[in-house]
């Protein structure tokens, strides 16, 4: 017998605001029949395609550890550069730019969401295809 990941849980200070931010970034939606609202201490969202779920839970700790989670995100379309610009426009901050770390067209950028959770923006599948690489080639990004 094996287990599977039901959802990914993220500790935060404002579950609604952070779930709304990640919905904009990923295109996720509220769970049907269980909409999120301001003041909710737990907010779950899901990918309408894969049904992957993220659960944001408010915790009372004044100071949260800086690396509670780590996602690697890949643009569904367009380029890595365009996606980085879009995410910065949503209010993310650039932590470190590792693009080109292994030569032209390689690498990732580490960004942080409004509460400081770090994540990496990888190259799109089209960019990987154009470079003759398979999608898993740069999914070993580290937030440091």
Q: How does this model look, in words?
A:
The protein has 144 residues and is α/β, with parallel strands linked by helices. It has 2 domains: 8-58, Signal recognition particle alu RNA binding heterodimer, srp9/1 (2-Layer Sandwich), CATH 3.30.720; 71-138. Helix content is 19%, strand content 24%. It contains 3 helices and 8 strands. The protein has helices at 15-26, 80-89, 125-130, and strands at residues 8-12, 29-30, 42-46, 53-58, 71-73, 93-97, 109-112, 118-121. The strands form 2 sheets. A 4-stranded mixed β-sheet has the order 1-4-3-2, covered by helices on one side. A hairpin with a 6-residue loop joins strand 3 and strand 4 (53-58). The longest helix is centred in the first third of the chain and has 12 residues, at 15-26. It is globular. The protein starts with 7 loop residues before the first strand and ends in a 14-residue tail after the last helix.
What distinguishing features does this structure have?
24% strand; 144 residues; 4-stranded mixed β-sheet; Signal recognition particle alu RNA binding heterodimer, srp9/1
């Amino acid at each position: 017998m094996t287990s599977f990941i039901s959802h990914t849980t993220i500790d935060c200070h404002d579950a609604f605001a952070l779930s709304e931010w990640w919905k904009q970034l990923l295109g996720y939606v509220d769970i049907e029949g269980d909409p999120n609202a301001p003041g909710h201490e737990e907010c779950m969202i899901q990918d309408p395609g894969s049904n992957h779920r993220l659960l944001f839970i408010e915790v009372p700790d004044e100071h949260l550890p800086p690396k509670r989670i780590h996602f690697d995100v890949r643009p569904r379309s367009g380029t890595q550069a365009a996606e980085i610009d879009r995410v910065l426009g949503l209010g993310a901050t650039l932590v470190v730019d590792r693009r080109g770390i292994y030569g032209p067209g390689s690498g990732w950028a580490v960004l942080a969401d409004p509460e400081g959770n770090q994540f990496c923006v990888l190259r799109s599948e089209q960019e990987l295809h154009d470079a003759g690489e398979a999608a898993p080639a740069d999914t070993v990004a580290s937030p440091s």
